[in-house]
Amino acid sequence: MADYQLYCFAQSGNAYRTALMLNLIGAKWEPVWYDFFGTAPQRTPEFRESINEMGEAPVLVHGEKRLSQSGVILTYLANHSGKFKPQGEDEELESLRWIIFDNQKVNGFLGPYRFLKNFASKPGDPAVMAFLKGRIEAALAIVNKRLTGRKFLVSDKPTIADISMTGYLFYPPEEFGFDIAKDCPAIGAWLERTKALPGWGHPYDLMPGYPFGTQGYRNQ
Ligand SMILES: N[C@@H](CCC(=O)N[C@@H](CS)C(=O)NCC(=O)O)C(=O)O
């Protein structure tokens, strides 16, 4: 029996952060897939009543506890495992600063951009896509500068801020139409360091839903 259940689906970078954390800390966890793009249970009153009033993935269930918002889930798992936990007040605040910036401006714009490009019933309006692309480039440039000459975002060790920032960054470049690792070399090198952590897995290998429209995994 798994200790943790994670409501997630393969295409969700927001859920990926938490699936990756569970794997990296060596937790016993199982995914609970739902058909986000098809029957869309997240829009129903039942889902909002009993799973997440915000209608979002990820949701982590740990015994009686049910948590949403990936930043909250990462904090909870770091506190419980003692792993990837920022050390001391300064690191905690710095980590939170990058998690909020990531949620709002990095993966917060990459997620909708990739959704409109790949999964929406109608392709995104070109003006909207151009706006999002501009915001993404500006946010990625800030992260790239931060990582230039540094191993990880907050200290010389990886923390939950790094795990949060991976959100959509390991998905295939074709899904964006640009290659973040190539365009932003410091991000590319940091992604390689993150990939080398024991327990790392690709989103399409950790969460069900690949290929799109199935409940499969990429390498199983
Ligand atoms: N800030 C949230 C974002 C969660 C989020 O937007 N999840 C998407 C899936 S990738 C979702 O469920 N969206 C449903 C909606 O916006 O209605 C987090 O980090 O957990």
Poorly predicted residue ranges: none
User: Which structural class matches the secondary elements?
Assistant: alpha+beta
Shape by Cα distribution: globular
Number of DSSP helical runs: 9
Percent range of helical residues: 40-55%
Tally of DSSP β-strands = 4
Going by CATH, the architecture of the largest domain would be Up-down Bundle
Distance between the termini: 21 Å
> What does the main sheet amount to?
4 strands, mixed
* Total domain count: 2
Order of helices and strands: EHEHEEHHHHHHH
CATH fold-level label of the largest domain: Glutathione S-transferase Yfyf (Class Pi), Chain A, domain 2
Strand order of the largest sheet: 2-1-3-4
CATH C-level category of the largest domain: Mainly Alpha
Strand content: 5-15%
Q: Mean pLDDT, as a whole number?
A: 98
Radius of gyration from the CA trace? 17 Å
